[in-house]
């Protein structure tokens, strides 16, 4: 492996936190070079086709970082967004991530993905960007996450949605104006109204 190849791999890994085999290939670096750097202890393989600098500290949100690299146009949502925002006690085994309804469905074995197809404003609104491990995470804010929970209450459980709203309101993690906007976007304002009134009473 030439010093130039090695330097390019290291630069990519430092810039993004995680480098994929696809990104390396687009930079003219064969996957064998990645394998060699793993053998030399410079990189470590964290998932199929995903590598990071060996010994680099990881955070509790490392699974979200890997998922974000695999699904760059997706948005972390629902139960995974709750965990990121420190709300509730849910510990999902999968990374919940929203993709556009027309987008190709990516696959990732580790961590496993729970893909949900959103469209229009329900997909594009309420997105926040958070930098974790050098990776920009696209994740729905608290108000949008709460509206999504009520919209998909049959999948996540109404009790989860109610408890998340109670806790988030108690900790002042959203404003009612933001919640109203998100509820309108997700078309659940009528559904949420009695629960919102009970929480703020």
Summarize the structure.
By secondary structure, the protein is an alpha+beta fold.
Average predicted confidence as pLDDT: 87
Beta-strand share of residues: 15-25%
Main sheet, how many strands, which sense, barrel?
Answer: 3 strands, antiparallel
Overall radius of gyration: 19 Å
- The side-by-side strand order for the widest beta sheet comes to 1-3-2
Q: How many strands in all?
A: 8
Distance N to C terminus = 66 Å
- Which geometry do the CA atoms define? elongated
Instruction: State the helix count.
Output: 11
* Low-pLDDT residue spans: none
Total individual domains: 2
Name the helicity range. 40-55%
Which class best fits the helix and strand makeup? alpha+beta
The SSE order reads HEHHEEHEHEEHEEHHHHH
Could you please describe the fold and organization of this structure?
This protein is of the alpha+beta class. The protein folds into two domains: 3-53; 62-200, no CATH class. It has eleven helices and eight strands. The chain has helices spanning 3-16, 21-26, 31-39, 62-70, 78-84, 121-124, 142-151, 153-156, 158-170, 176-185, 189-200; strands at residues 19-20, 43-47, 50-53, 75-76, 95-100, 113-118, 127-132, 135-140. Strands 1-3-2 form a three-stranded antiparallel beta sheet, sandwiched between helices. A three-stranded mixed beta sheet has the order 4-5-6. Strands 7-8 form a two-stranded antiparallel ribbon. Strand 7 (127-132) and strand 8 (135-140) form a beta hairpin. The longest helix has 14 residues, at 3-16. The radius of gyration is 19 Å and the shape is elongated. The N and C termini lie far apart (66 Å). The model has no long low-confidence stretch (mean pLDDT 87).
